[in-house]
Write a structure and sequence with these properties.
Elements (H helix, E strand, L loop, with lengths): L1 E4 L3 E8 L5 E8 L1 H11 L4 E4 L2 E2 L2 H12 L2 E2 L5 E2 L5 E7 L2 E7 L22 E5 L8 H10 L5 E5 L10 H14 L2 E5 H7 L3 H7 L3 E5 L5 E5 L2 E5 L12 H15 L5 H6 L2 H19 L16
Parallel strand pairs: 1-4, 1-10, 2-8, 4-6, 5-7, 10-11, 11-12, 12-13
Antiparallel strand pairs: 2-3, 8-9, 13-14, 14-15
Length: 302
């Protein structure tokens, strides 16, 4: 199983009513949640760990996980509210306003951490769940105790959400030092003051740098592989990076490379098909509104 550890929330997406009024529509989302959904839809053994509410929105999230073949048995439930994220779009790019105080996800503590079953082969972390305490520290603790499991991190940094920059930076760097795979954007690297080469030196086996329309650069100690982006008509970019993460992990699973040892021993050519699957899956997501990752049947043969 690939266990996605982090936030689930309700995206309040902008829409216009039939009367032309501006409104918001609630849609299940969250960066890590989206990755779990995409993994399940791609046919990989997907699991989700994060605080889920028993409220109306929490039931929506739980139902969406089940519908996309994601096992959420390890996710603790509470009666705290669900995190809300109001989304605005500028030229197809999303900006967010989060409402996260005292929520089921944010208030996750060490007491909620499960004993990981032996079938959990990989852990994925990222998103806003790594910002706000106590949940952020709980995920950091789970990452530190990953043992020999494969760890992938996508920081997906949102500076406007950071309240204690020093603690957040320290937490991120500790987790990145444990990561086997890092997916990172130009903006993330600028904020962190790092480069793919520096992340490799810090311990990562594979760094995936997203370059928008130019594609994905896969960097390891053995060199660099550029996978071009697929040309599609972009509706919006919500969930694109999350879907790429899922496609990459699903591709590693398909290729029998879902382990620390396998990824660290692999040549870039061996990893290329997984990177291409991530790019293909993300291309489908950006071609339609919202975070709506493809099902395996939509990208058969890739």
């Amino acid at each position: 199983m690939i266990l996605c550890c982090g936030e689930s929330l309700i995206d309040m997406l902008p829409r216009a009513t039939t009367a032309g009024e501006q409104a918001f529509v609630p849609v299940a989302g969250g960066s890590v949640f989206n990755t779990a959904i995409a993994l399940g839809r791609l046919g990989a053994p997907a699991g989700y760990f994060g605080g889920l509410s028993t409220d109306l929105f929490g039931q929506v999230l739980s139902g969406a996980l089940t519908a996309s073949r994601v096992d959420a048995a390890l996710a603790p439930r509470s009666d705290r509210p669900t995190t809300l994220a109001f989304v605005t779009l500028t030229d197809g790019h999303a900006q967010y306003a989060f409402y996260d105080e005292n929520t089921a996800g944010r208030m996750l503590t060490g007491a909620d951490l499960p004993v990981l079953p032996d079938d959990v082969a990989a852990l994925f972390f990222g998103g806003i769940s790594l910002v706000s305490e106590p949940g952020a520290e709980t995920y950091a603790s789970l990452c530190a105790d990953a043992g020999e499991r494969l760890v992938m991190i996508d920081p997906n940094i949102r500076p406007g959400f950071v309240t204690d920059e020093a603690r957040y930076r320290a937490r991120l760097w500790a987790m990145l030092a444990r990561a086997d795979i890092v997916k990172i954007s130009d903006e993330d690297m600028q904020w962190l003051g790092t480069t793919p080469a520096a992340l490799i030196d810090a311990g990562a086996a594979l760094v995936l740098e997203t370059r928008g329309a130019e594609g994905i650069s896969a960097v390891s100690a053995r060199g660099e592989l550029l996978v071009p982006a697929r040309k599609v008509e972009v509706v919006d970019t919500v969930g694109a990076g999350d879907t790429f993460n899922a496609g990459l992990l699903a591709g590693l699973w398909r290729a029998g490379l879902l382990s620390r040892a396998a990824v660290r021993a692999a040549r870039l050519d061996d990893l290329g098909p997984a990177v291409m699957l991530g790019a293909a899956a993300a291309a489908v997501t950006v071609s339609r509104a919202g975070a709506n990752p493809p099902w395996d049947a939509e990208i058969d043969g890739i």
